[in-house]
Design goal:
It is a single chain. The chain is of the alpha+beta class. It is elongated, with a radius of gyration of 25 Å.
């Protein structure tokens, strides 16, 4: 083994060692944040792990292979606890985000591949806001804020989308817990369940048209003197591609 390879391995090993404490620290931080909203998280995880391990160990004694089933049960106990922890941590995170400005944008930002999101395409002085996502389901406008005030924002943005991309379906969702609204924790699932009606090239073409509109608006010269009543400041930057 040559000296170059030894030096390369030496560089990789410290990097791997440094990554492990980082992961453990992140898990510990997530647990602390989850425990603030879910006081029983420790008892639940312990119960899941013990029950899973106990069931497999009991089966092992019944069939005469306690060691083999015990090891398998221990591994599955860790797996089951990790799955339960992940779900309860996600639920706690959504609970803390519920009602916070920009919460819907954070969910859209992590919706997954195949979607292009643009936060705050429309906003009023009360911080009611409309975000836009483009995918194979078409254009999805997601509003958060006062349900009565966001109706006019959604209607105006939907009318603009229908004028620019008339051949693309436009869906509108309001995030909230009221009737006809979508809970924040169900937003991603709701969007992924929308029927896929566009092909990949059609999604790209739609994004290009919307991006061109955004560039056009951002390059518009502002009039001198006081801003005309009702005119909104152009928003810089195109949509955030994923």
């Amino acid at each position: 083994m040559g000296p170059r390879r030894l030096r390369g391995m030496a560089r990789k090993e410290p990097a791997a060692d440094a990554a492990n404490p980082g992961r453990l620290k992140q898990i510990a931080l997530t647990y602390k944040m989850t425990r603030k909203a879910d006081k029983k998280i420790g008892l639940v995880l312990a119960a899941v792990g013990i029950v899973t391990f106990g069931v497999f160990l009991a089966i092992g004694f019944l069939i005469g292979h306690p060691i083999y089933l015990g090891i398998l049960g221990l591994l599955l106990a860790f797996l089951a606890s990790a799955i339960v922890f992940g779900r309860r941590a996600e639920r706690a995170a959504f609970g803390q985000m519920e009602g916070q400005p920009g919460a819907a944008a954070a969910v859209l930002d992590n919706i997954g591949r195949g979607w292009t999101t643009t936060p705050a395409v429309a906003m009023n002085r009360n911080q009611d806001v409309v975000h836009r996502a483009v995918g194979k389901a078409g254009i999805v406008l997601v509003a958060e804020g006062n349900p009565n005030r966001v109706k006019s924002l959604l209607a105006a943005e939907k009318k603009k989308m229908n004028r620019i991309v008339a051949d693309v379906p436009v869906h509108d969702l309001v995030v909230g817990t009221g009737e006809g609204q979508v809970e924040l924790k169900k937003l991603r699932t709701t969007m992924l369940k929308l029927p896929r009606v566009l092909t990949g090239p059609q999604v790209t073409a739609t994004n290009d048209r919307l991006r061109a509109l955004g560039d056009l608006m951002s390059n518009m010269p502002l009039p001198k003197g006081p801003m005309p009543k009702g005119m909104r400041m152009p928003r810089g930057g195109g949509p955030k591609a994923r």
